[in-house]
Amino acid sequence: MGHNIFTGSLVFLDRFAGEHVVANQHMLISGETGSGKSVTARLITLLELDLNTKAAYIDPDGEYVYYTEKLGGQVITLMPGRFSGMNILDVEPETIKENGRKTERVNLQEKTAEVVDLIAAVMRYYSGQGLDMRQAALLEEAVMEEYREREITEDPESLYSGGVKKTMPTLSDVQKRLAQKAGMEALADAIKPLLAGGSIGMFDGQTTVKLKDVPIICFNLKQVQSDFARFVASYASLAWLWQKFAQRGGKSIKKSVNIDEAWMFLKHPDVAKYLEVLARRGRKHGCALTVITQRFEEFTHTPSGRAIIDSCATILVLKQEEHAADAAVEYFNLASGCRDLLAKAGPGMGILRTSGITSAVQVSPAPFEWPLVETKVVGT
């Protein structure tokens, strides 16, 4: 990925080398605007493709769309009021260990909790309060009743009828059922913006997006401008990625979830929770989390933020503003001499720490790689 700026020796990074080499696959890339963090992220993904690692990007600004398309990937563009092709209530089997044996099951409890959490998060955003105990209980009941009506259980076979996957419940189905329960009319009305045709009805319908056998998936959020719509889009996309991408294939399939401008997601604790889930549980499923951010200090202000960056066994700190350079040296326990390097670094230059080794590096894409990894923003 580059070279050591003092010795000139080449720098190789293999996040998936195994716990005997590196504690986990997670990585933090931090640097101010123009420091080269997006180019570095794309370069690392490009190099990891040669090692059969699949990648997914949450892309707030459309900076990874061109890159994804050029590499034969799949771009999912989210827009307020338009169905994304992803059903938040869709379920898939997951591989678990039971009595020392691998088996598959449909985790309906986790999916139900996920839907309840989404609606509770929406209520918190609107009113500053989540759901009370009765609302949460009846919402959970409504979701479970939708699965029971379709005879969907923890048995993976229950997802199919005659070899064809069953029609899944949707948010509209849950909302209608909830509206029939005594005292739940107000909550049912509050859910309406999330339904098809609503201002943020991006996840209400039968899943049409299929995870093709492609190297990269990009969730393009550039058209999602309002804070509330971006909150819902981020939450639902991360939830969908966790089940449909991160857990698929377990450790036998290497994969990474890359979050650009990750500091934005910390504004909403409910969204930050999914980053923490990926950081904490992703390793068991062979999934790396890559946190790409210009404001790493934002992560140090909350317990969930600290948990996320502290879980990253590999950190790359690129050029920082002077106050941020001081903070980086202190937080990551770097040598005092790193402060001047970080404050004066050119694009792609920084401090890499992995496997207990700290190096001053220059990230250097090869000439034939530059047309792919340089930043190109598309409108949609």
UniProtKB/TrEMBL annotation:
Origin superkingdom: Bacteria
All residue ranges annotated as the TraG P-loop domain in the record: 18-323
Cross-referenced Pfam families: P-loop_TraG
InterPro entries: P-loop_NTPase, P-loop_TraG, T4SS_component
PANTHER family for the chain: SLR6007 PROTEIN, UNCHARACTERIZED PROTEIN YJGR-RELATED
Name recorded for this polypeptide: TraG P-loop domain-containing protein
Annotated organism of origin: Desulforamulus profundi
